[in-house]
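Deliverable D5.2: sample structural annotation.
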Amino acid sequence: MGRRYAVFAVAGLLGIAACTEKAPEQAATAAGPVAPQEITVHARDYGFEAPDTIPAGLTTIRLINDGPGLHHGQLLRIDSSKTFADAVAAIPQQVNFPAWLVAVGGPNAVAAGDTSTVTQELAPGNYMWICFVDLGGEPHYKRGMERAFTVVPSSAPAATPPDADINVTLRNYAFEFSKPLTAGQHTFKVMTADTSSQSHELVLVQLAPGKTGEDLLGWLQKPEGPPPGRALGGVADLTRSMPVYFSANLTPGNYLLICFDPDYNDGKPHFMHGMMETVSVS
C-alpha cells in the first residue's frame, strides 16, 4: 500500500524505459514459451527474508506473510548512483519520493499467513524492499523493515508474460477495467496510465457481508473488533509504463478497490479524491 499514506491505509487492514513490457513474440524460443523466473520473499515482524541478488528479467514474486501482522512488499528502484543508505535516510523526510527513488510495484498487502504474488519485469539496478504498514502508531520501515538487493544482468531468454484476461488501468483518480469482474480465477494486467501525472496502487479487499468501503475506512482509523474486510493483495505503488500482473480467485460478494497513495499536490490519499470503488461480483 502506497508510500506515506500506507501508514494510514494499513493501520489494521489486515529510468523506466528499461522496464517496459516484452512482447510475447520476443519471449518465445524454439522450444516454446519461457516461464518467468520465480523468487520467494518472506515478510515478518519486522523484516524481509529475500535474495541479495536477482537476475534481470520477467520475475514472479511470491511474498509470504509470516505475520502475525499485515505486510506488503513495496519495490523501489534506487537510481542516479544513490545507495540504499541514501534511500533509508530520504524516505522519512519526504512527503513524496525523491526523483531518484522510483516505485516499481511489488506484491500488495495480504493478511497473516497468506501469500501475495505478482509477475513483473526487473531491470538491472539497485533496489529495496520496504513495508509502509503501520499496526501500532509506527510504520514498519521505521522498525527496520527495509532490505536492499541488486538486480544483475542476465543472458537468459526472455520469458513470456502471463496470459491476462482483464486489463486494469490506474488513472487520476479511477480504476479502469477492460471488462466487468465476475466470479472465478482471473489474471490481471495492471498499469498506471501514461497520461497519469502520479503513480498509483491497487489494493484488493474482499468486504465482509454487509460491510462497505466507508466501514473499512472507519475501522482503519479505529481498529476495534473484527475487520470489515480481508486484504487479498494487488499491486503496490506503481510508476507509469510498466505492467505488473497478479491473479485472484473471486467468489461472489463485494470487493473494494482502493488506492492509498498520497497526492503529489495536497498530500491527501487518493481515495479521498475518489479512487475507491466497490464492485459486486456474482
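Annotation notes: Confidence is low (pLDDT under 50) at residues 4-28. The CA atoms of residues 173 and 275 lie 5 Å apart.
The annotation will be released with the project's public dataset once the embargo ends.
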